């Protein structure tokens, strides 16, 4: 039977060509494989380089960044001890941090920036009037203290009715022509009882801030003992007797009048006007003279017109 393939020792046509074609192809694939392997290695190195973690931050850097983001007041009060204040004006509360070693004058400037109330028209109270030349530390202001502010803006002052002021001044001048209050019969029956044994000491010719304790040892119109407590945080005057205590908003008191007691000029008789007429006067006798101006300023404010 004839063999289907070529005789032994003879190659079939096309085998050389095919072998020659396949050999270069195998050699080329190896080269390409090596080249591809080298490129992949380079890409892998590059990838590893790009995935290297960023250098670790020094331990203090994050804290520094936090202090910048949260440090709104940084530098504003650096090196100065601050105190938390509640500034109350016109029934509005303002929470403020303020240097403890700042003066009353500087506090007024701060209040001006908050409320628009000019410093010259402010009455600032903390246990009495706050002196402009003393620091908050000197007058023993503590954290959380309530600072009461009384005063009128320029627009309020310009809105005052001038003819009404003139009429009030004329009425006051007419009143001055009357008989001294301490000689009038209604007051003599109280004054003739003499000075109370527990009356508070007086300092003639002096002006002092209100004391931290109530003013006591005084008489009222009926001759009973009376004490005055100034609740600045609540903007109230408490008039206390043995029977009861009247709690009066200071804004409800229309006027405060006073007159030295003849023969005892270091003490005054004083009235608080609680209604529209003089019939509503609440009289208090034997008020130490050094507190008279402080009482009027606290109740009425410096910018009341009477």
Description:
With 306 residues, the protein is of the alpha+beta class. The radius of gyration is 46 Å and the shape is elongated. The N terminus is likely disordered. The strands form 2 sheets. It has a 7-stranded antiparallel β-sheet, covered by helices on one side. A 4-stranded mixed β-sheet has the order 2-1-4-3, with helices on one face. Strand 9 and strand 10 form a beta hairpin. It contains 7 helices and 11 strands.
Low-confidence spans: pLDDT under 50, at least 5 residues? 1-28, 56-76
Number of strands: 11
**What is the N-to-C order of secondary-structure elements (H for helix, E for strand)?**
HHEEHEEHHHEEEEEEEH
**Quick one: biggest sheet?**
7 strands, antiparallel
Helix content percent band: 25-40%
| Widest beta sheet: strand line-up | 8-7-6-5-11-10-9
Number of helices: 7
The geometry reads as: elongated
Q: Give the overall average pLDDT.
A: 75
Strand percentage lies at 15-25%
What class, by secondary structure content?
Answer: alpha+beta
CA gyration radius, whole angstroms: 46 Å
Distance between the ends? 149 Å
How would you describe this structure in keywords?
single chain; 306 residues; alpha+beta; four-stranded mixed β-sheet; 11 strands
In short:
The chain has 306 residues and is α+β, with helices and mostly antiparallel strands.
Topology of helices and strands:
Elements (H helix, E strand, L loop, with lengths): L14 H36 L10 H10 L11 E8 L2 E8 L4 H12 L6 E4 L19 E7 L2 H5 L3 H15 L8 H7 L23 E6 L4 E7 L4 E5 L4 E5 L5 E7 L2 E10 L7 E8 L3 H9 L6
Parallel strand pairs: 1-4
Antiparallel strand pairs: 1-2, 3-4, 5-6, 5-11, 6-7, 7-8, 9-10, 10-11
